[in-house]
Amino acid sequence: MIINMENNLKKLLLPLNYDIEKIKSIPLIIIEGPMASGKGTLSSMLVKKFGFSHKSVLQTIKEMLFQVGIKSPSRKETDEMEKPVKEVYGETGFAKMLLSKIDTNTEQKGVVIEGFRFFSDVEFFTQLPHATTIWLEASPEVRFKRVQSRRKDNDLNNWEDFVAKDVQENRWMKGIKEIANLVLNTEKPQDQVEAELVEAVKEKYKLI
């Protein structure tokens, strides 16, 4: 990312404003896992099932890049957002950015947040009493087939690039699985995975 672009991005990183006390009362479901593990699919299911709001880390990054003229960012360009965000907001910068996007002035049944890449951001949520973290996993082979089938990741269209990126992201996310409240293997039939997730959310938040 060129220096001028990085400086322009920093100008977009305004002081964050959120009421942590109000947020503490909102059910927060953090959906994590390596690429193509099913985060978007299961997040959408929870939104539809329970009427939760949905926040995506990647979509937030893309919206910021769009404002500086990058309309279709590559994975490399979205990865490079780490530096300006952490320089301005600190190690838990992405967590704080997403919290600032939650509307605490209207009633929230719950918020699903998906796609953090760093342990520090997910660990931040452990201090919130109504937050729960779900870790999704599947073998690299299965996930690579998913990447190929959805045709969104044009910069990961061969096995070698996929593995290299997977190793990088696993390094960033090291430790998240260990602090997760629930681990789901998404290689199982989708209806079974969805049923397990729905049951866990119902039990956690006493939903009917």
Write structural notes for this entry.
There is one protein chain. This protein has twelve helices and five strands. With 208 residues, the protein is of the alpha/beta class. The chain has one domain (3-12, 22-205): P-loop containing nucleotide triphosphate hydrolases (Rossmann fold, 3-Layer(aba) Sandwich). A five-stranded parallel β-sheet has the order 2-3-1-4-5. Helix 6 packs across helix 7.
How do the helices and strands line up, and which of them pair or pack?
Elements: H1 3-12, H2 20-23, E1 28-32, H3 39-50, E2 53-56, H4 57-67, H5 75-79, H6 82-89, H7 93-99, E3 111-114, H8 119-124, E4 131-137, H9 140-150, H10 159-172, H11 176-179, E5 182-185, H12 190-205
Parallel strand pairs: 1-3, 1-4, 2-3, 4-5
Helix pairs in contact: 6-7
Top keywords for this entry?
208 residues; alpha/beta; Rossmann fold; 5-stranded parallel beta sheet; globular
